[in-house]
């Protein structure tokens, strides 16, 4: 045989061998698991997982496709309420550092929280209601001469500075519960409406908040205009109907931000999924919409698909998930993460949300503090703090399954959603894939994960949650 022919056949054989080897090559994957019986709580599993070519697929398969991409992700986290900060700042220095590293660092077994929500003034999870410009009864301060971040200087601001030392790039959302009482029709921290003559003053008040926090080294990435604008029963709170919120953004807040050179994003609504008409009606007004980055949602009412309703009406605007309380019984022998995983981590992001925030970061064993006349007496923290002791609750583990791996700048990618195995997939900035799966059924589930023509055999016990990375 001609030596050139032999050489050609040898080269072809080598190519064929390389192709076969490539086809048989496996891809390693990791699993972080939480089991309903608490035998695993956000624990990395030791057994090796591999995507393998060939083989017969399971009847139940989740197929991940990174060629189809959706919205970018800004982060996952909690509300750092004044009450949360109060408990944290009262811990010993060593205990506080250990807790904050566990929450905000990414390495080792830390969970890498990447997004926080602060209240502008008090929320209902402060010891008492306050604003940054409270005046004696009958007095006003239209020039905001007495504006001062006052109470936040004792807890929220020092805690935020420690958090920023751990994670300087964390995103921060600010939300007001109420303007100063003297700006309101009822002169009370609870309920009432913003007096028309103070709309411009209140816009400047919000500008001063952003500027004041920046002077403390804290950059406010975005604000919502009003927490739960259709729920004036909290203390503090404000009734702000859609027409008023739209007019306030268009005529006061947007122009005030522009005049002051404020780059902080404006997010409207910040309330339940039962009223998608509220944000849509404002976004339909182009004069208001030019100042608006997107809409924020809670899920105490309605369906999480409302986020897609608003996205589809205005795909040029962003969607955010800004609050949900997640509670479990204290000292329970099991942990049930099915609802928050299905509806928040998976549901919100599959409906275009760029973030997921849960309510709230910390409380004590009695769910304190909270305000009188409308504060929340049952709002469990993601962690329960009793002096220097920390107990991690269901909200902590829910966020952990996403925050550690789905880093800011990740993008959601396609995966088929299954009734018994709701899931969502992401591609991280460094090219890794993340798949979060919840077994919401009453039985164990065997399934395959398919990616790029390879299969990984997976199993989740009933009520278990797994984050798969590769």
UniProtKB/TrEMBL annotation:
Pfam family name, one: Glyco_hydro_30C
Signal peptide (from-to): 1-23
InterPro entries the UniProt entry points to: GH (IPR017853), GH30_C (IPR033452), Glyco_hydro_30 (IPR001139), Glyco_hydro_30_TIM-barrel (IPR033453), Glyco_hydro_b (IPR013780)
Domain Glycosyl hydrolase family 30 TIM-barrel span(s) in chain numbering: 73-406
MF GO annotations: glucosylceramidase activity
Start and end residues of each Glycosyl hydrolase family 30 beta sandwich domain: 409-468
Domain of life assignment: Bacteria
One of the protein's GO biological processes: glucosylceramide catabolic process
Annotated keywords: Glycosidase, Hydrolase, Signal
Record-level GO cellular component terms: membrane
UniProt similarity note: Belongs to the glycosyl hydrolase 30 family.
Protein name (database record): Glucosylceramidase
Biological source species: Mucilaginibacter ginsenosidivorax
């Amino acid at each position: 045989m001609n030596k050139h022919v032999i050489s050609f056949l040898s080269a072809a054989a080598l190519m064929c061998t390389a192709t076969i080897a490539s086809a048989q090559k496996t891809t390693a994957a990791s699993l972080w698991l939480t089991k309903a019986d608490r035998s695993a709580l956000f624990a990395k599993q030791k057994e090796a997982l591999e995507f393998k070519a060939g083989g017969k697929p399971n009847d139940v398969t989740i197929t991940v496709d990174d060629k189809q991409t959706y919205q970018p992700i800004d982060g996952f986290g909690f509300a750092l309420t004044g009450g949360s900060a109060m408990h944290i700042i009262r811990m010993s220095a060593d205990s506080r550092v250990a807790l904050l590293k566990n929450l905000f660092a990414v390495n080792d077994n830390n969970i890498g929280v990447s997004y926080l929500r602060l209240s502008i003034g008090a929320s209902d999870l402060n010891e008492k209601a306050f604003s940054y410009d409270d005046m004696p009864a009958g007095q006003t301060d239209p020039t905001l001469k007495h504006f001062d971040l006052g109470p936040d200087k004792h807890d929220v601001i020092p805690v935020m500075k420690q958090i920023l030392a751990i994670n300087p790039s964390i995103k921060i959302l600010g939300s007001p519960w109420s303007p100063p009482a003297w700006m309101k029709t009822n002169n009370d921290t609870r309920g009432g409406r913003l007096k028309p003559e103070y709309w411009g003053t209140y816009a400047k008040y919000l500008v001063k908040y952003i500027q004041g926090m920046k002077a403390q080294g804290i950059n406010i990435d975005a604000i919502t205009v009003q927490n739960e604008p259709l729920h004036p029963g909290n203390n503090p709170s404000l009734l702000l109907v859609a027409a008023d919120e739209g007019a306030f953004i268009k005529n006061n807040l947007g122009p005030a931000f522009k005049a002051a050179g404020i780059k902080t994003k404006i997010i409207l609504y910040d309330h339940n999924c039962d009223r998608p008409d509220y944000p849509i009606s404002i976004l339909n007004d182009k004069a208001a919409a030019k100042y608006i980055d997107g809409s924020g949602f809670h899920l105490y009412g309605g369906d999480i698909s409302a986020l897609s309703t608003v996205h589809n009406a205005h795909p040029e605007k962003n969607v955010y998930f800004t609050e949900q309380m997640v509670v479990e019984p204290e000292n329970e022998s099991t942990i049930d993460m099915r609802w928050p995983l299905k509806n928040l981590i998976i549901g919100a992001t599959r409906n275009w949300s760029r973030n997921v925030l849960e309510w709230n970061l910390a409380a004590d064993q009695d769910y304190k503090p909270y305000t009188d006349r409308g504060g929340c007496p049952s709002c469990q923290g993601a962690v329960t703090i009793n002096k220097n002791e920390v107990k991690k609750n269901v909200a902590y583990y829910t966020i952990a399954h996403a925050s550690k791996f789905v880093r800011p700048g990740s993008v959601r990618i396609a995966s088929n959603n299954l009734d018994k195995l709701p899931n969502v997939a992401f591609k991280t900035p460094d090219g890794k894939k993340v798949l979060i799966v919840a077994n919401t059924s009453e039985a164990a589930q065997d399934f395959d994960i398919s990616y790029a023509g390879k299969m990984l055999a997976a199993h989740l016990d009933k009520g278990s949650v797994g984050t798969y990375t590769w």
